[in-house]
Specification:
Length: 202
């Protein structure tokens, strides 16, 4: 299922039909009730567009309603809900009913939903998470492992910045008992998109 259809279905959106025929620039699907494919001047996501000429009624809803870029949200077939950053961890760890799509943001303004268009999830074990224009593949086991490790290290007084860069201060090394293998592990995780996502929501 295409994301814009999932969202419109979940919210029971009364879609606004247009009169133009063509392929949608956001989802790539053909429609005979599209709107002009003209974008607002503040639009920056051109590199994520499909080749097309119109905006289909479903994507029209996502493009014109700023909630999809200014909020974090979860969409399933029966529910659409927005949530706050401090709720993200709990949501990602919950057993989500498929199909679902989940979007997080650091910028609260990018049209990152576009990159999730063909990333609706059909597995609770391995799934995509949108983070602005990034798409992060989250394997559930790894997600749990990373979040646990981060929580443990934060509780020991290591900072998120240190965990993101792998550059631990002497004081932090002492706090983890000068555990060389743990330090190596953290260093290995630097740059891992899922690790960064876990730091963001921890
Ligand atoms: Zn579309």
């Amino acid at each position: 299922m295409i994301l814009s259809r999932l969202v419109c279905r979940a919210r029971r959106v009364q879609i606004q039909v247009g009169t133009l025929k063509g392929n949608c620039i956001f989802c790539g699907q053909y429609t005979d009730c599209g709107h002009p494919g003209k974008l607002k001047t503040n639009f920056t996501g051109y590199s994520y567009l499909q080749s097309g000429e119109v905006i289909c009624p479903y994507c029209y809803e996502l493009y014109n309603n700023e909630e999809y870029r200014k909020k974090m949200w979860l969409a399933t077939e029966h529910e659409f809900k927005t949530f706050k950053r401090n709720e993200a961890k709990e949501i990602l760890l919950s057993s989500l009913p498929v199909p679902f799509a989940v979007y997080l943001t650091k910028t609260w303004k990018k049209q990152g939903w576009i990159t999730l268009m063909d990333k609706v999830n059909y597995s609770p074990k391995i799934f995509f998470v949108g983070l602005d224009y990034d798409v992060v593949l989250a394997e559930r086991q790894r997600l749990i492992k990373y979040l646990d490790l981060i929580q443990d290290l934060l509780e020991q007084g290591v900072t998120k910045k240190e965990l993101a860069t792998g550059q631990l201060r002497v004081r932090s090394l002492e706090r983890i008992g000068m555990d060389r293998s743990l330090w190596d592990k953290i260093t290995m995780l630097v740059g891992d998109k899922l690790w960064d996502l876990c730091l963001f929501i921890s």
